[in-house]
Amino acid sequence: MTDKLIPPSPSADEYAAVHAAHEAEIEAAEPFALFGQWLKEAKAREPNDPNAMAVATVDADGLPDVRMVLLKDFDDRGFVFYTNTLSAKGQQLTQDPKAALLFHWKSLRRQIRIRGEVTRVSDAEADAYFHSRARQSQIGAWASDQSRPLENRFALERKVAEYGLKFGLGRIDRPPHWTGFRVAPLAMEFWRDKPFRLHDRVQFRRDTVSSGWSRVKLYP
User: Fold this and answer.
1) Any idea where the domains of the chain sit in the sequence?
2) Which CATH class is domain 25-123+177-220?
3) Of 134, 135, 155, the residue nearest 144 (C-alpha)
4) Which residues participate in catalysis according to the annotation?
5) Which range in 3-7, 183-187, 192-196 is most confidently predicted, on average pLDDT?
């Protein structure tokens, strides 16, 4: 059964077909501009959600947890996503403000791994992004007790309707338990697929978020 579900490793001919035109090796002096370039190319090639990323955290027992979210902003301060602070990831990031991110773009055969320190965005940043969202998404942020048990789908829809009536046509303020987290990277690794698993890997590291970057190529 497993043999039918797990794809076999590519043959030499399949590798040759996929990698007919090899890209140049990864060359960059610092990671943020390279990240922006790769994200731009992913936006043009990925069929949906090129800004999707996995966010890994640990709970109070040190057990890892990971889930997919959407990147909503980035600059040289770090990578921003938004969530309910009472959710599992919100509580884990509050207790232990460190995280790892992973971007994987199958259409480009590339991935980027990021590890760093986490802080909350300012209230002004969170307010600005919250009010840029669709109105139903704003209502959903109030209605969803994220990560907590849900009796049934009707219970959620009822809460959405209740908050819809509460706010009417007026402005919806950002919930106090909803904000953004910024991951300031201490390490960023760029990976690009190469034939026969001889991949191209470049890692950038720094000691603190205000330090300069060092760069090293890694064995695949």
Assistant:
1) 25-123+177-220, 132-173
2) mainly beta
3) 155
4) 197
5) 183-187
